[in-house]
Specification:
Elements lengths: L1 H7 L12 H23 L6 H9 L17 H12 L8 H22 L3 E2 L2 E2 L1 H5 L1 H20 L4 H27 L7 H26 L4 H28 L2 H4 L5 H4 L5 H9 L2 H14 L3 H5 L3 H13 L2 H20 L6 H16 L3
Antiparallel strand pairs: 1-2
Helix pairs in contact: 2-4, 2-5, 2-18, 3-7, 4-5, 4-9, 4-18, 5-7, 5-8, 5-9, 8-9, 9-10, 10-17, 10-18, 13-14, 13-16, 13-17, 14-16, 17-18
């Protein structure tokens, strides 16, 4: 992996942070507690059957419409939005509209991504398109995107206008990233730089927005919001690097997805592109297999058995793609923390930003 390391700067010593599990759990729970009632009220505005379809997606009801305590996700973005309001000296509640808006846009992207990627499982249950059909997945996703902007603009303040501009810019970048991701699936080669740009758009943009939107609503100036956004951007890259590792080697029981999930979708994720850029026998063998895979139809590719996906995963690991991606997650984590040194923050808020960043790089789902 020496070529990649030289192109990306000095390697970071892969030290696993000690996560304040209880503190992070409290932050995530606060995000859910403050945002869920507002989120439910927003979804209730949708016309039937979109309200029920959205409720199913969020885990509030099952496929038959019965109330359920389903998994509604990690809630990292709402937690960041509330914390960013406190970074501006405002109460956490000031960030609630921003937290809800970001969560609505995030779930708009999940509904569409699941359909485009053909994912049949999310959070241990069938995805919306699988249960309610592709048309409803598209319509409900569009509706959630519109609701996100509506929630902010209803505030009618200058700060709300500034927050909406940040949200729409982040959404455009998120869509750019998804388009790049799809276009890479059938390419034989994608560079590490292209992959990082795509992931910075697809994941980093919305996490960056979450980390600044509460501060904007709380009255922060653009400099403060921009620094917090930079923290969120690099946190997003760390988050996605961990997701890329889980997408190949994650435990399906923890992730709620199939084994070798990203390999089944031909994704050019960081472990793959890093392995291809590494050189050496394993890298060359992997390149030959992926070049042959790119010429196969989706039906032919999905006929692969577990052993064939396991072979590709083993080659990626032998070529160094797994180790490099793990190291990159930690490098992005360190860069995110470095951004916080440029802004004055209450000590408690700084510690909580640090704890959330640590959580991102050691999670298992």
């Amino acid at each position: 992996m020496s070529t990649i390391t030289e192109n990306r700067g000095d390697p970071v010593t892969p030290v696993t942070p000690a996560v304040d599990t209880a503190g992070v759990a409290a932050l995530l729970e606060r995000g859910r507690t403050l945002t869920t009632p507002v989120l439910r009220a927003a979804v209730a505005r949708l016309a039937p059957p979109m309200d029920a379809v959205a409720s199913y997606h969020f885990g509030w009801i099952d496929a038959e419409g019965r109330p359920t305590a389903g998994d509604s996700g990690k809630a990292v973005r709402p937690a960041l939005a509330l914390l960013s309001a406190e970074a501006a000296g405002a109460p956490a509640e000031a960030g609630v509209p921003g937290a809800v808006a970001v969560e609505l846009v995030h779930n708009f992207s999940l509904l569409h991504d699941d359909l485009m990627d053909g994912d049949e499982q999310r959070r241990h249950r069938d995805t919306v398109w699988k249960v309610h059909g592709p048309a409803q997945a598209i319509l409900v996703g569009d509706a959630l995107f519109a609701l996100g902007n509506e929630i902010l603009l209803e505030l009618g303040t200058v700060e709300a206008g500034r927050a909406t501009r940040r949200l729409t810019a982040a959404t455009r970048r998120l869509i750019d990233g998804q388009a790049q991701d799809i276009s890479y699936e059938h390419r034989e080669r994608v560079s590490v730089e292209e992959c990082l740009e795509m992931e910075g758009n697809k994941t980093g943009a919305l996490l960056a927005c979450a980390t600044s939107i509460g501060a904007v609503l709380g009255g922060a100036d653009d400099r403060t919001a921009d620094i917090l956004e930079r923290y969120g951007h690099h946190l997003g890259l760390a988050f996605q690097a961990v997701d890329d590792l889980l997408g190949i080697w994650g435990d399906p029981v923890a992730t709620g997805k199939q084994t070798w999930s990203d390999l089944r979708q031909r994704k050019k994720s960081l472990p793959v592109v890093a392995a291809l850029a590494a050189g050496g026998q394993a890298s060359e063998q992997l390149a030959e297999l992926l070049a042959a895979d790119a010429k196969k139809s989706d039906a032919e590719f999905m006929d692969f058995d577990e052993e064939e996906f396991a072979t590709r995963a083993a080659l990626i690991e032998r070529a160094g793609g797994r180790d490099w991606t793990s190291q990159e997650a930690r490098r992005q984590h360190a860069t995110a923390l470095g951004a916080l040194d440029e802004v004055e923050l209450p000590a408690r808020v700084r510690e909580q930003f640090l704890a959330l960043a640590d959580f991102v790089v050691v999670r298992e789902r």
